[in-house]
Amino acid sequence: MSHIALIGPLSKDRVIKNNETHKSVGGSVYYQSNVMENLQINTRALITLSKDDKYLLDEFGECIEIIPLFKHKTIEFQNIYPTDDPDFRIQKANIPFNPINPEDIANFNLKDIDVILLGPLCPYDIPLQTIEFLSKFEIPIYLGAQGYLRHLKEDKIVLNPWNDFKKFLKFIKILFMDEIEAKVILDKDISLEETARILASFGPEEVIITQGSNGALIYSNKSGKIYRIPAFQANQIIDPTGLGDTFMAAYSARKIQIEDPLECGKFAAAAAVIKLENKGPFNKKRDLIEKRMEI
After folding, report:
1. How large is the average pLDDT for residues 216-233?
2. Which residues pair with 206 in a beta bridge?
3. What is the residue extent of each domain of the chain?
4. What CATH class has 3-294?
């Protein structure tokens, strides 16, 4: 049976949409764990948060093996959607310094793990030294790039180029980002296709760029091909927070079972649109994803 390790911080989120405010648990690891639980993937999650916020762990499913790493404070995010466009979001944050260092994961059980999925929310959540340490276990490492681009300007999140990305990417098998992040990451005025090829040249076997309602682009270094994944039409737009994390998790789960980037991309796109149509994290089963793929 497949096993995935999730590593990253938990956050306390406030989602503001249609003049309504909703508080929830957040962070890549949280949204990804819900996908894994509903797809029945054995999951072990190493999570940073404050001891005062330990109650947030109750929001995780019983099938997720949680290893909390307590820090001084929990990250806080505001996700503001001023329009009905789910691809347009304003973010504000309160980000404490909570790095996950090699000594923090020295006793993290990676036995029987097939994939390590890293979900940093800011540049210092998972330092290079930690990724180097994880690489010694010779387990494929998948990474969401967003955290390394996010910086605070006063209390607002802004995206800046990831200057030392080359040092990280040699350890990464699959790299995920969205199209806005892709335009920032290299600080060059080039196409998404060229961005993906350049990033893949530094190590990743696949670079995946999600494009919201326009689907996704996948570049495979192995085949040298670009795969275009169409988006599924949403019946209604309810909750866009965590869409990228849902796509990432679903893609990773499917990738354990099948190599084909096109098949994995379609599976992930179907999971993402189902999440968009429902409030909160992904909470449906595999058969619903497969039915959506047939439409």
Report:
1. 96
2. 174, 220
3. 3-294
4. alpha beta
Are 274 and 295 a contacting pair, CB within 8 Å?
no
Strand order across the 216-220 sheet: 64-71, 42-50, 3-9, 115-118, 141-144, 174-178, 206-210, 216-220, 225-229
CB 252 within 8 A of CB 5: no
Coil/strand/helix, residue 16: strand
pLDDT for 295 beyond 70: no
Which of 162, 191, 156, 143 lies closest to 32, judged by CA?
143
Residue 36 makes CB contacts below 8 A (sequence gap 6+) with: 4, 6, 43, 64, 249, 253
pTM over 0.90: yes
The first and second tokens of residue 256, run together, are 């354990």
Q: Quick one: what percent of the chain has pLDDT higher than 90?
A: 83
